[in-house]
Amino acid sequence: MNQSNHYPADFTWGVATSAFQIEGGASADGKGPSIWDTFCLNPNNIKDKSDGTVACDHYNRYREDVSLISSLNVDAYRFSMAWARVQPSGKGAWNEAGFGFYDRLLDQLAAKDIKAHLTLYHWDLPQGLQDDGGWLNRDSAHRFADYAHEVARRFGNRVAAIATHNEPWCSANLGYGNAQFAPGVADAKQAIQVSHHLLLSHGLAMTSMRATASSAQLGIVLNQWTADPATDSEADRAMAELEYARSVQWFMDPIFKGRYPELALRAHGQNAPVVHDGDFTAIAQPIDFLGVNYYFRSFCSAETPPRTPPGKLGFTDMGWEIYPQGLTELLVKLHAEYMLPPIYITENGMANPDAVSGGKVADPERIAYVQMHLDALKAAMEQGVDVRGYFLWSLLDNFEWNSGYAKRFGIVHVDYETQERTLKDSAIWYRDFLSAQRQR
Ligand code: FCB
Questions:
Q1: Is 145 in contact with 201 (CB distance < 8 Å)?
Q2: Would you give per-residue pLDDT tens digits along the chain (440 residues)?
Q3: Which of 401, 407, 409 to mutate to test the pocket of ligand 1 (most atoms within 8 A of CB)?
Q4: How far is the CA of 261 from the centre of ligand 1 (A)?
Q5: Which of 347, 370, 403 for a ligand 1 pocket mutation test, highest count of atoms within 8 Å of Cβ?
Q6: Ligand 1 center–CA 440 separation, angstroms
Q7: Which CATH code for domain 12-438?
Q8: Which residues have C-beta atoms less than 6 Å from ligand 1?
Q9: Which atom of ligand 1 is least distant from the CA of 400?
């Protein structure tokens, strides 16, 4: 690995998961259903017709999983809370048994000296709120702020960081734009209105959490990419500019500039969201950190059929182009465009068709992927971007949304029949890499 790849001593190294993808315990101890529980009831929605009822059974195995995390030498663990576990219908009474699970998880993490980075919403809206209109209903933003307040009040001094949302782009565009994700709606206008309510809910939650005066760093996690024109043609360049405005700036501008990007607003035309007076003030709250999830770039081709990305470094099992330099380019561009708070790379990793053989899992592709992205991250830091941490996605193989269990993102292999965990070579590599970082 690149010898210059030494990071600041206080850089945070972690692994990441999310509730629905690993917990299971779908109706344990009073948990209410979420929109993903409902979405999985229609087997056509999930490629392998699976669901999250058991997943990695983390709900019952969290102690062993925290020991596993600890064995990897990481400083921090990023996970999400299942809202419907702690508030079964998304409004009204709190479920103490649900909070009890996260209380025990936090105890385990503290006992192993692992910092907790909590995400409030990783796509699993309580079905009760969906029944009231979900994120299309503006009131959900207020319900979310109440939930955020309660979590910060209870746990805000026991976690290092709280992120409001994970990838609201996905909640809006895959959940409401093309029906690939729960709740399975395909309606461009609704998707844009939903994105506004998600942003509003983020801002209201920042304010409600600040009121608890908790010590946690508060922020949001956005999936981001650069948008590259496939060729130098005017049409491709225009498409790339619009794509960047609709995906990256659409979420960044309201938070950092208190407005939507003109180019995207114009393109949305009649589908532009209904925005109330004061919404941008509510949204543009100062944040303590920005989480960036990076997997690939957007490759924009206006031709028919569109040109496909060259993939000089190959493609992952998701079909995603491996393009580490995009991480450098993205971070440097964001740094030039916005007054950024400290950044954490809250997700980065790859799916690979891994299998256990002789008690081992050889995944050299994943090791190379992570190394290349860490080099790219270092390059951005050398250009002045203030990055404070990196979280590998994911700790465990898990329920990869509409791909079910067929796509393996873990650095730890999970046998879903036995729930046996096996460290992949990438986990051993990461562990040793982190131990070398510490010995400097
Ligand atoms: C991100 C999600 C995460 C996981 C990875 C592969 O978009 O946040 O849950 O599915 O992709």
A1: yes
A2: 444 568 999 999 999 999 999 999 999 999 999 999 999 999 899 999 999 999 999 999 999 999 999 999 999 999 999 999 999 999 999 999 999 999 999 999 999 999 999 999 999 999 999 999 999 999 999 999 999 999 999 999 999 999 999 999 999 999 999 999 999 999 999 999 999 999 999 999 999 999 999 999 999 999 999 999 999 999 999 999 999 999 999 999 999 999 999 999 999 999 999 999 999 999 999 999 999 999 999 999 999 999 999 999 999 999 999 999 999 999 999 999 999 999 999 999 999 999 999 999 999 999 999 999 999 999 999 999 999 999 999 999 999 999 999 999 999 999 999 999 999 999 999 999 999 998 86
A3: 401
A4: 25
A5: 347
A6: 32
A7: 3.20.20.80
A8: 18, 21, 166-167, 170, 223, 293, 347, 393, 400-401, 409
A9: 10
Q: Give the 3-state secondary structure of residue 415.
A: strand
Between the two ends of the chain, the Cα-to-Cα distance in Å is: 15
Containing H/E element for 79?
Answer: strand 76-80
Decide: pTM greater than 0.70.
yes
DSSP β-bridge partners for residue 118 = 79, 162
Per domain, the residue ranges of the chain are: 12-438
- Give the C-alpha separation, 77 to 116, whole Å: 5
Residue 23 a catalytic site member: no
Nearest CA-CA partner of 219 in 285, 125, 278, 294: 285
Q: Which of 23, 321, 329, 347 is an active site residue?
A: 347
Residue located nearest, by CA, to atom 9 of ligand 1 = 18
Task: Give the count of alpha carbons within 13 A of 67, CB side only.
Answer: 4
